[in-house]
């Protein structure tokens, strides 16, 4: 039998929760396990927190046994952000969002807190344009770095640029024109080689 109620207590270690049934005069269930959406070897794990509206399937042998089928949309959390053809994952405070838009072919990832992306191997291919805007930027390469520029490279620095090099720096310029618009100081420590 299907029932609707509010999660009253949860256990994230067993992915289960107790539910107070709205249609059974507030009767509280035992701990019921959550049924997870799963597809293609991927699982979407969640456990409703206290106060979340959920739907349960109660087994015929009593209110203690059954499964939590899912959470119910409320007025404050509209499904799909109110738009068609969108898969939307939103945190309770609404500050963290993962949005897949099938109509526009876009993926938006919005994180309000610090986050970490970890990959064993990562290849990024952008067909047309890449623009990265950030307040500060830090790139750390433990072994080696290689940058291949197919045509033109433009670097605009609004403030100051400082480079500390422990090893060797080789700069090979294959074009005909090299222009330095501002003053440049080169302090030769060990080996600095410029080939034009």
Which short descriptors sum up this protein?
elongated; 196 residues; three-stranded antiparallel beta sheet; five-stranded mixed barrel; 12 strands; 0% helix; 30% strand; OB fold (Dihydrolipoamide Acetyltransferase, E2P); mainly beta; single chain
Describe this entry's structure for a reader.
- The protein has 196 residues and is mainly beta.
- The protein has a domain of 70 residues: Gp5 N-terminal domain (OB fold (Dihydrolipoamide Acetyltransferase, E2P), Beta Barrel).
- Helix content is 0%, strand content 30%.
- It has no helices and twelve strands.
- Strands 1-2-3-7-6 form a five-stranded mixed beta barrel.
Topology readout:
Blueprint: E1 2-11, E2 16-21, E3 32-34, E4 38-39, E5 42-43, E6 53-58, E7 66-71, E8 86-90, E9 97-101, E10 106-110, E11 169-172, E12 192-195
Parallel strand pairs: 3-7, 11-12
Antiparallel strand pairs: 1-2, 1-6, 2-3, 4-5, 6-7, 8-9, 9-10
């Amino acid at each position: 039998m299907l029932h609707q109620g509010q999660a009253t207590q949860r256990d994230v270690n067993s992915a289960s929760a107790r539910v107070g049934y709205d249609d059974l005069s507030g009767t509280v269930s035992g701990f019921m396990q959550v049924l997870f959406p799963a597809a293609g070897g991927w699982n979407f794990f969640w456990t409703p927190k206290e106060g979340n509206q959920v739907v349960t399937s109660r087994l015929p042998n009593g209110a203690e046994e059954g499964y939590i089928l899912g959470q119910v949309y409320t007025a404050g959390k509209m499904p799909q952000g109110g738009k068609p053809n969108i898969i939307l994952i939103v945190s309770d405070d609404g500050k963290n969002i993962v949005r897949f838009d099938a109509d526009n072919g876009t993926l938006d990832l919005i994180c309000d807190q610090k986050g970490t992306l970890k990959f064993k191997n990562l290849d990024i291919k952008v067909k047309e344009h890449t623009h990265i805007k950030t307040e500060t930027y830090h790139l750390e390469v433990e072994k080696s770095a290689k940058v291949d520029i197919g045509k033109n490279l433009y670097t605009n620095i609004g403030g100051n640029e400082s480079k500390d090099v422990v090893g060797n720096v080789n700069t090979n310029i294959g074009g005909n024109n090299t222009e330095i618009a501002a003053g440049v100081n080169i302090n030769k420590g060990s080996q600095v080689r410029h080939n034009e």
